[in-house]
Amino acid sequence: MDKKSSQQKKAWRRPGSKPKKRKFQGKLPQDHEKDKSNTSASAQKLKKSKDTSFDVPVDQTAGYSIIHFFMVFTALQQYLKCKVCDKDVSFLKWGQRGLGFKILLTCDCGEKYIDSGPLISTGYEINRRLVYVMRLIGVGLSGINTFCGLMELGNGITSSTYYYIIDTISTAMQSVFDLAMRKSVNEEKLLNAARGEPEDVLTVSVKVPTVKTQDLTIKLMKELSTNYGLAIQRHPDSVEEMRREIWAGYYHKISTDEKPQHSYCSDSWCKYKKAVRDKTVKIFKHPPALAQDVQEILKPIYEDLTKQELLERCIGGNTQNNNESFNNCVWAMAPKHVFSGKIIVQIACQTAACIFNEGFKPVLKIMSVMGVKIGPTAIHYATQRDRERVRVANRRSTDASKEARTQRRNAILDENERYEEEEGTMYGAGIAD
Ligand SMILES: [Zn+2]
Ligand SMILES: [Zn+2]
Known about the structure:
Blueprint: H1 3-11, H2 37-48, H3 69-79, E1 90-97, E2 100-107, E3 110-115, E4 119-120, E5 123-124, H4 125-136, H5 141-150, H6 159-195, H7 207-234, H8 239-253, H9 271-277, H10 292-305, H11 308-314, H12 323-333, H13 335-358, H14 361-369, H15 376-396, H16 404-422
Helix pairs in contact: 2-6, 4-6, 6-13, 6-14, 7-8, 7-12, 7-13, 13-16, 15-16
The structure holds zinc ion (ZN) (2 copies).
Pfam families: Mutator
Region (Disordered): 1-48, 393-433
InterPro entries: Mutator_transp_dom
């Protein structure tokens, strides 16, 4: 017997026989999202491609529906019979992972498993979609799980699944972002040529929002780790004092004129406390506080970094260490938050930059590179969004002779403002939880 027919035999079961076991012999749940080779390959292809359009293939069959599983399938059971054994069939929901699951169809012939939706490699497409789209509207893991839980959609996804998907998104995002950059550079060159200016003098606006926000994040992380190091160095013999001073830095930074929070601060470095001491606090103005979304990502980092056992290890002896090694220490100790925080900030910035320059098409492109099928509904939505944006800009534009590009930019700026009002987080760092 050759290899092929023995495999066939293994899969075949005598009609009417009951399956022996239903034990699932597969990967660990979180590993279904580990494989991002498809996305990496698509991203690589896109990077080499000369094509600078954001067109995506449209799958007319792509589409999801929310159904009440029990109600619908109990009704179907009333009507359906198996074509082979002519007996009743039953349906069960089985092996749920995120929003994906299998439908277990049982009749006298045995059991069959039907995927609730398409897979990308081994993961359900719907989960990648979910994570990306939620990211786009500023919702992270805990938000997703609240959504899934309260909507009776299952237990949501685990944190490792989430971070695998974030990694995939980041890969897809980077390639589409590069494409937007290439396109922008080409357009500037053409414009320069048309104006009779040197081709290479470029004013590529797409770079601005990205670099700025990333720099801000890195600066903040540096400041955080420096303060942390100093707090430990200043109090080599008391965990309590260390903790107090570390938190002082946090509350100091989120203080505003309306809500000063300097009770932990020392007047050796806190300007507010100094002002209190010098009785000039009435005219004291706080610098802009950390944005709400940044606060929310920093708080858990601070909580991790002020844990008893961690600070105990810093007692004594460590005064020799310079700031650099403290910094290394901080980065190493908070890898998950800092790492994912950075990637998530980057995804948000790059998405914002792409939308800023090209409208909503890059969003579809990113999804497509991730292996997600774009169907008629998503295309329709993106087209409507872009059309509306241009319409609003055209209406507001008083100077009819402005270049189309300027109009598009204005349209996108309007859109940005509207978005910031409506949804806040998307154009911020998008790290709402
Ligand atoms: Zn049957
Ligand atoms: Zn202070």
